[in-house]
Amino acid sequence: MERNTQQRRAILAALEVTKRPLSVQEILDIASSDCPGLGIATVYRNVKALLQDEKLSPVELPGGSVLYELPGHHHHHHFSCRKCQKVYDIFDCGLNLHNLVPSGFKLEEHEILLSGVCEACAH
Amino acid sequence: MERNTQQRRAILAALEVTKRPLSVQEILDIASSDCPGLGIATVYRNVKALLQDEKLSPVELPGGSVLYELPGHHHHHHFSCRKCQKVYDIFDCGLNLHNLVPSGFKLEEHEILLSGVCEACAH
DNA sequence: ATACTAATGATAATAGCTTCTCATTATCAA
DNA sequence: TTGATAATGAGAAGCTATTATCATTAGTAT
User: Fold this and answer.
1) By the CB < 8 Å criterion, does B98 face chain A?
2) Which terminus of chain A has a lower count of CB atoms within 10 Å, N or C?
């Protein structure tokens, strides 16, 4: 059976309170204030379990880092700050790219990654 | 001084012939037919040097893999095949996303990554 | 052709991140 | 409460990608 531990509650609380995608290390740092002594292995274990239960969504960034956020949002994009490395959710999606970022944010670059099946593999 | 070795020629030839972004491992595999015995360390060394000389451009994918392609193209996007994992260049960019992919290709997903400076860091 | 030395190939070492191990702790059904 | 055991923390181990080491090879100026 699955136990409702202090550690798991602190991890979920960190994600709920922060409202943006977090790395494993960020989850550890934030949840540690609720739960002193929290170990990195426990964060990894819980993140893995939460992903399998679909209580957490991965956000994969170019460069290799993976962040996690609570699911339930509909389609949205992400804004990555060049200076602080934080990643913010962007909900509006009219594809006028400059309108996507919140006021005060400066959009400098964007990347579009398309995926699907290429011609050679379509058969 | 910089020497024009058989290995470097084979590495550049692999990128010229293939006309799509390649991973270090793919470069090794393809260039090995021109240059049997080619070592992975040599590919890393040459890729690093070519990047510094801006004779090669990195293509960073969500999930962490980094591919390399010859520069000189103007702004373009990439199409990643779900089945064969190959990445193709997409040159047309009208932002009608379905028009971006070549005929015969099936567009299933796209990701947009915006980046810049967030409000908190703008000051 | 020769000498100098940059570049190479094989492999050891490193780095960063993630998972495993295991003794201990804490949750929860009864 | 208590007993069974899932979950934890600490650190070892594993993994993957990249870089360093070093004896040997090969490009280049002469």
Assistant:
1) no
2) N
Query: How confident is the model over B65-84, as pLDDT tens digits?
Result: 788 988 876 655 556 555 55
A35 touches strand D (CB under 7 A): yes
Kindly state whether residue B111 falls inside one of the protein's structural domains: no
Give the closest residue to A72 by CA, choosing from A96, A49, A91, A48: A91
In this structure, what token pair is assigned to residue A6? 């202090």
CB B14 within 8 A of CB B31: yes
The residue range of the domain holding B42 is: 6-99
Confidence check: pLDDT of A112 > 70: no
Q: Is the CB of B7 under 7 A from strand C?
A: yes
What is the pLDDT, as a whole number, of residue A88? 60
Of A94, A90, A61, A122, residue with least CA distance to B108: A122
pTM of the predicted structure, to 2 decimals = 0.77
Ordered DSSP codes for B58-83: EEE-BTS-EEEE-S---S-EEEEETT
- Indicate whether A111 pLDDT > 80: no
Task: State how far the alpha carbon of B106 is from the alpha carbons of A91, B22, B30, B41, B78, in Å.
Answer: 26, 21, 27, 37, 13
